[in-house]
Structures are given as C-alpha cells and as structure tokens.
Structure to design on (321 residues):
C-alpha cells in the first residue's frame, strides 16, 4: 500500500512538474533575452561562467530545500549549517589534518545538524519553522564561538582548487553542482524513497496509514538538506580561500526562492529538482543582469522579493484550478 500511495503522488506531480518546468525554463529564457538586449556583456563566455559559478552554491542548497519543502516543511538552518561546516573543516586543515579528513568532518557536521532538525520535527513534533530556527541559531553561534568570529585563512591549495580551478574549462564548483543535482534529482524522481517523500508531503496521515515510514522520511530529507548545505559551505570556503563565520547568512531564503520559483509547492507534495535547478539560475541571472545594468543591490532585493511573492501567488492559483 505504501508504494501505491507514493506512485499516485509521483504521477500527479509528474504531470504538474512537466508543465511547471516548461514555464520556468521559458521565464529563464525570456530573462536572458532581456539582459542580452540591455547589456552587451551578458552573453560573453566569461560572464556566463561567472553566473554559473555564483549560482552553484545556491543551486546545491536549493536542492536540499526542495526535499524539505516537498514534505511540507522548511529548513531555516541551511545558511548557518554552511558556515559551521566550513569553519570546522577549516579548523581541521589548519590543524594539519589531511584535506579528505577535513572535508569528511565538514560533511559530517552538516549531516549531524540536519539529523538534529529532523529528530526535533519527526519525533519531538516541533513545527519545522521553530525547530530549524533553533538549529539555525545554534549552528551560527557555534560557528562564531569556535574561532571568536575570526575567519580561518591559509587553507591548503589542494582544497581551494575545488572552488577556484576549472576542469576542461568548466569551473569545479559548477561540475559539483551538476553532479549533485543529477544524483539527488534521480533519488527524488526514480526511487522508492522519492515516492515516499511525495506521499508524505501530499498527505502525511494517509501516507503513514499506507505503511510509509513518515518519521524516517522526515529524518532523511533534513539529513539530505544538512549534507548539501555542508557541501555548499565547503565549496564557498574553497572559492573565497577562507572559512568565514558569517558565510551563508540569508542563503536559506535564496534556497526557498529558487525552489518556489522552480515550481515546488509551499504546501508540500509537489515539485522537482530540475525545476529548482532552473529556479536557482533565474535568481543568479537576475542578480547578474541587474548588476550589469547598474541596478542598486538594495533595489535588487526588492525585485527578487517581488518575484518570490509572485511565484507563490501563481502557485496558489494553479493549485485551485
């Protein structure tokens, strides 16, 4: 029965996601045309690679947020998790530990933070907003405390190349983004776990009665979100060649924005990683294009805010039809 409940959710989502994907991609295409007309520099290879590199971190954390939103939750701890994971990995590298050990420590930190959020939500029955708000505050506090808010510099080149170098002309950060998007997109769209995630978000009680391990599903999606936040935090540290205690501040909102623009429903049970991926690029292109035409960063926030609200409004209308 659990599989049938999940299959129904996946089939219903697949039809809606295809339409939403076309709509989201059309929006990205139109946005690109507008900025191509407004700025001669927009379509240059260097600028497009810059957009992709800048979007990589947002896209990675947005994939994790997509998993959470589909279950009807939210993860506000993503940005703080990024900072803490990067800081602890940086501390390990400064202490002379091998880079792989430091990376593993950073990823384990993200998984642990995600597991704490998941346990509070699944077993302690604390609302996702409150649980992840608490985790967010704890992670940010730890990130500031462990180094007294002092950035960790002097990271080894074997680590920083991950964020600064390219392979076959493609930035390593972009390659990481593509691989993670493919892996987690496959899990969500093609596996039993993915079906159970959709079923849990569509109707938690019905999924539970159908045999879905709903508590396990909630734990898993928050662990995934924590893991991807840690990946993003490590990539950011490698890019800027330092671990910053303030890294990721406000990024959880970018993750939500990318997901919602990409068609993930704030009510749960609907969405796809492919849509989120395009949604992240809409945010990236919008920021880059507005920078190229000289729009103030303050005005940019207003524009992006309007886009987010508009996306949610459209989602509400679409769900009523």
């Amino acid at each position: 029965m659990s599989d049938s409940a999940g299959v129904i959710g996946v089939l219903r989502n697949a039809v809606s996601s295809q339409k939403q994907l076309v709509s989201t991609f059309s929006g990205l295409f139109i946005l690109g045309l507008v900025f191509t007309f407004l700025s001669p520099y927009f379509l240059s290879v260097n600028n497009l690679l810059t957009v992709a590199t800048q979007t990589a971190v947002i896209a990675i954390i947005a994939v994790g947020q997509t998993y959470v939103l589909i279950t009807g939750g939210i993860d506000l701890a993503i940005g703080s998790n990024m900072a803490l994971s990067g800081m602890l990995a940086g501390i390990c590298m400064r202490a002379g530990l091998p880079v792989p050990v430091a990376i593993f420590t950073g990823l384990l930190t993200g998984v642990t933070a995600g597991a704490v959020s998941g346990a509070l939500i699944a077993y302690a029955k604390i609302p996702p907003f409150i649980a992840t708000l608490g985790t967010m505050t704890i992670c940010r506090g730890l990130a500031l405390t462990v180094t007294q808010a002092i950035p960790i510099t002097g990271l080894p080149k074997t680590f920083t190349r991950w964020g600064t170098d390219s392979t076959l002309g493609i930035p390593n950060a972009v390659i990481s983004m593509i691989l993670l998007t493919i892996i987690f997109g496959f899990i969500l769209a093609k596996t039993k776990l993915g079906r159970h995630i959709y079923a849990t978000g569509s109707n938690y009680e019905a999924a539970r009665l159908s045999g879905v391990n709903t508590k396990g599903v909630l734990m898993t999606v928050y662990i995934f979100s924590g893991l991807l936040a840690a990946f993003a935090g490590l990539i950011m540290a490698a890019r800027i060649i330092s671990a910053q205690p303030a890294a990721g501040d406000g990024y959880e909102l970018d993750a939500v924005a990318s997901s919602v623009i990409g068609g993930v429903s704030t009510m749960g049970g609907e969405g796809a990683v492919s849509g989120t991926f395009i949604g992240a690029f809409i945010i990236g292109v919008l920021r880059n294009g507005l920078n190229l035409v000289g729009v103030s960063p303050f005005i940019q926030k207003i524009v992006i805010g309007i886009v987010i609200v508009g996306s949610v409004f459209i989602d509400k209308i679409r769900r009523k039809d």
